[in-house]
Amino acid sequence: MEGKKLTLAITLTLGLTTVLNGSFVHAASVSELNKQQKELEQKKSSVISELNEASQKLEENKSNQAALSADMQKLDAEIQEATQKLDEINQQINQKNQEITNLENEIKQIEERIKKRDQLLKERARAMQANGTVNYLDVLLGSQSFTDFISRVTAVSTIMEADKSIIEEHKRDHKLLNENKLKIEQEKAQIETLKGQLESTKATLETKKAEKDQILAKLKEEQDSLEEHYMDLQEQQQLYANQEAAIKKAIELEQKRQAEAAKAQQREAAASGGGGSSAPAAPVTGGLFIRPTGGSITSGFGGRGSGHHFGIDIGGSAGDPVYAAASGVVYRSYYSSSYGNVVFITHYINGQTYDTIYAHLSSRSVNEGDVVQQGQYIGAKGTTGQSTGVHLHFELHVGKWNNAKSNAVDPRSYIHF
């Protein structure tokens, strides 16, 4: 239970008491109970007003959800479009990489041709240097006949044309090499640009995704908070309604008690001839509360671990009976995520309000609004809720139970265990 916050519950102050013969009402007056009932009505009205406000905020939240959902759909479409563009850019990059590979292969081939031609020209130059400069005019003039002259002219022309062709081709290859190098550099620059666009697109996608996650988280957080607050108010409203019903029952009981007391007084007066006054009721001298169940205390009241234990744990076996520690009115009997099956009872004894809480029950045999007598069976010991092992978690509050449990006292100060 015990370390978890429960919904704020303001307990009922009833005009109730316990007398030695076990009767439920003794000292509280109807007027006092009526006053408490009016206070409850005011509190209930305040809670209803808060409920209306919370309901309006929930509606606004739902409207915001619808708007945010539309934004998210738009964002999803943008992300899908950006993803498609990323795929296209990746295809372009792959294509450019292939083109660069092809250009690099061509450059290698051109370089190989240039290398071979360079070698050929070097060999021709070495041959000329070794044999002296060839004078093509001497070659022509040295012809033995006209036919020989024509042959020599043809041969010289062929050699000169071949040399010229080699040189021109060599120049073209160099030019082509430079052009291809420039082209590949431009292609690489385009690739770098595409990479930059890709990185920018990725960054944009990541930003949009982060924004979407933040929107979803904020939306969920706001929704959970509003729903929790609304549920708290609903539970408070239910508590006040239960308390109001309990007050009405307490007023009826008090009126009945006073009527019976008046009749008894009249009978006594008639029997004694109308003289004297009735003796005052005997005060309660002790035994305000009894043990709620058998078993030994397994965890006491006070500091425990990193927190504070606001009651005592009484061990035992599953199904052990649990009794009302004093007479009173059940104002809450339900299943709590922390207390498990739990029963809240309000008592009014000698002008003082007390609350007792019985938690982790395996079952409950009393309902909200029931009037119980001291020692009455109200449930069975168990280990429901936030509980480890079978036990009864029992709290005693001098005054109203509140969320801070500021009125909790050690039950052993009032009950002998």
Automatic annotation (TrEMBL):
Region feature (Disordered): 262-285
Residue ranges of every copy of the Peptidoglycan hydrolase PcsB coiled-coil domain listed in the record: 107-179
Pfam families, A to Z: CC_PcsB (PF24568), Peptidase_M23 (PF01551)
Coiled-coil regions listed in the entry: 30-123, 167-253
Domain named M23ase beta-sheet core: residues: 308-405
Keyword annotations of the record: Coiled coil, Signal
Matches recorded under SUPFAM superfamilies: Duplicated hybrid motif (SSF51261)
Feature: compositional bias, Low complexity: 262-271
Residues annotated as signal peptide: 1-27
Protein name per UniProt: Peptidoglycan DD-metalloendopeptidase family protein
Organism whose genome encodes this protein: Caldifermentibacillus hisashii
Record lineage: Bacteria, Bacillati, Bacillota, Bacilli, Bacillales
